[in-house]
Amino acid sequence: MMEMNYKLYKVSPKLYRELHEMAENMGGEKVRKPQRTQGTRWLAHLGNALDAIMKNFAPLMSHLEDLIADRRSSADIQGKAKRILKIMTDFPTLKFMFFLQDILDSMSKLSQNLQKDSSSLAEASRAVDATSFQLGSLAKKPGMYLQSFLDEMGESKDQTVFRGQQLKRTEMEEEFEANRSDVVSKLQRHLTRRFESLRRDEVAAAITILNTRQWPQTTEDLESYGNAAVDFICRHFSTVLTQHKCELANVMYEWQEAKLYVSSLPTMKRHNAWMDIMLDEELKAHIPNFMHLVEILTVLPLSTAACERGFSCMKRVKCDWRSSLKVDMLSKLMFVVLNGPEVKDYNAAGALNVWWKSERARRPNYMD
């Protein structure tokens, strides 16, 4: 249905303009352009397509009714409008679409967490588990979007009007519940299968020792916690650690010292404990060898999102009009774009003065 709606307005700018006019006449917000559901980023494409229909619901329904009643419309357009209108006025279908919005919202948050440059494997594993729990709760009770729909419809089963549109009520509550449970269980199984390496991979499992939220509460349990993981990491990265002059024999002792220090901190400060130690030269000097392990574990790449952003940046910088850029200048420009300040926060006076005082040829009379 969403793809049908997209194609209806894609092929006819006239229909899209009429939809805009319909929204303006109804005094609503600016209409959102219908989106396609198929694309490289399925979450973004499907979410945008669904969001466009939900935001445009009232003007969209009115415009479809006008198309059906207008004899000047072609039989093909009228047929498409009838099919879309029939689906959109079905109460169980509309209810499922709001449920799907809750699903996509939860999955989108997971996707954003996994694409962060600062995300570690331990944080990724925790985000996957949190998403799985969130999906499980959506199978039992309505989420934010579905609850808003139910509140707007009211508790009475005789209520059949939604945003001025008459809906067709059918006794399909049991089928909806079955479909909701089926969707959630399949998504949870897919998440488990897709990210099972986070739990099976020994390196990924060892990284969890840096997650202070999972540390034991008692001193007796904390004594032996993570010792096997630290020993494995030392053996796995022994070549790299040795090259950087890390004394492997002292790592285990420093790990015990690090546990005592971090566990003595207030609960609110434990989350950023490793970053605080890295930035404090005095603290870092107490456990220099173990900090080699921390640096390795915190910079292990979680995804290729940073690489993809780099390729996109390169395409924007080295466009058709700047195809003669050399590798050195391209690297510098990309570094500025990826790591520099926002344009609104950048003060160009310093760079302009350097350019003006340089020996490179300048346009005459460019500055007074």
Question: Any overview of this molecule?
Answer:
The chain is built from 22 helices and 2 strands. With 368 residues, it is mainly alpha-helical. A two-stranded antiparallel sheet has the order 1-2. The longest helix is centred in the first third of the chain and has 24 residues. It is extended and about 85 Å long. The protein starts with a helix and ends in an 11-residue tail after the last helix. The model has no long low-confidence stretch (mean pLDDT 85).
- Overall body shape: extended
> Count of helical segments?
22
- Quote the distance from N terminus to C terminus: 63 Å
Which structural class fits the helix and strand makeup?
mainly alpha
What do the pLDDT scores average to?
85
Relative strand content:
under 5%
The count of β-strands is 2
Q: Any idea what the radius of gyration is?
A: 29 Å
How would you write the strand order of the largest sheet? 1-2
> Helix coverage percent of residues?
55-70%
Low-confidence blocks of residues: none
Q: How can the largest sheet be summarized?
A: 2 strands, antiparallel
Encode the helix/strand succession as letters: HHHHHHHHEEHHHHHHHHHHHHHH
